[in-house]
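re: ur question from yesterday

yeah so i grabbed the chain u mentioned. its 480 aa long if i counted rite. heres the sequnce exactly as i have it in my notes:
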Amino acid sequence: MTEYRIERDSLGEMQVPADALYGAQTQRAVLNFPVSGMRCYPAFIWAMATIKRAAIEVNYNLGLIKDKTLPDGTVIKGEDIAKAVMQAADEVIAGKHNAHFVVDPFQAGAGTSQNMNTNEVIANRANQILGYALDDKNKPVHPNDHVNYAQSTNDTIPTAIRLGVLWRLDELVSTLQGLQKALEDKAQEFDHIVKSGRTHLQDAVPIRLGQEFSGYAKAIERDIDKIIKAAEGLRRLGIGGTAVGTGLNAHPEYHKNMVATLSKLTGITLYESDNLFESMQSMQDATFFSSALRTVAQDLTRIANDFRLLSSGPTTGLDEIRLPAVQPGSSIMPGKVNPVLAEMLNMAMFHVMGNDFTVLMSAQAGQLELNVMMPIIAHNLFEMMHVMIGAVKAFTEKCVVGLQANEEKARGWLSKNPILVTALNSIIGYENGAKVAKTALAEGRSIVDVVVDMGLMSREDAEAALDVYKMTEGGIMGAS
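ran it thru and got these structure tokens back, copy pasting raw so excuse formatting
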């Protein structure tokens, strides 16, 4: 049998697991919301604990954490309470108590359950630090009166969303930069390989495989820039607005001091809000960042699809690149190898796009002074980043780095491409070019042979004008 202790909140008594650091309000949430079985992401735990750590320091320095006299006459100094709460918060920040954050992401609106889970864990751990047992009836540190002092769910949760995203921003950017670098390396490695370009999935003028990969790399570089720019708005914090933006129950210096202290504790550049009402009402900064992640996701999906297409076959497809064989591709077809890393990236990015839609719908669902959908906005933003980091790392390390070009196949396709005649437009004209292309395709002959037979050019001039590498450098062929 599981042992319990009795905890109390404003609704009365609750049985809580004896060794749980959380209390009555968290336990009510556990019982009320047995929805997904999922837990909040470490980014959320870290962000909330960091806010509590900063708040107790700021409030103590403002002279607001008073001595407390217990029913037995024992006096606990405000300084000792503050130090215990800081130590407890530091432990949570370090990830030591993640198992005690048990509220489902699908929970009460705004995130009151998540906020109280944090308050209760830090308060109970602070009481232990001061020498009090979890089941002591006279514990000096209170989750609301001390840990949540000068705060409400309404300003801590949107602040935690911002901090949690910024906490992993460098990791996300670094991961995407790793992919960008791997693509740039392949662009250089493949720069000498001329292949058939394709538009509408039909033959087009030549392109170098390296040029194709340089386009992928540049797209990721631009995606990184969009992410960094979108994150700037998240640096503006509304902590101190408390319930509706007026700052009721917070010291006049609290907002400014909190932003400065959070910057100091996290090493993250943060700014004061220029309008606390907007900071609490609107989720536009979170939505903007989410849309930047969605943009990355669609680019990654496109690139993964190209990898699958370029590696298709190998005997009946394009087969211009060979992806690393990391696992058997079929339980029934021996020797089959599939583009599993590209397939994984597709699935991961579809998931990210779905997360973004949830953020979008949730952000517009706020009313008046508060958006009550913040818990699921937080969960989806953190999940988008988590999934993207993991998927891109795997794709880069296990697919892009080891992929190889099939130069022979690329040359073979190019040699059969009738659209090479495009390079002769300035010499023989578009109409004659169309006749040459159709004839070459119908008779299975080379462009040079058809042009010569039609008396449009000499063989020497045709071969010079149809230098496929020069075609990839642009300009007008045969202009001299």
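noticed a couple things. DSSP finds 18 helices and ten strands in the chain. also The mean pLDDT is 96.
anyway ttyl
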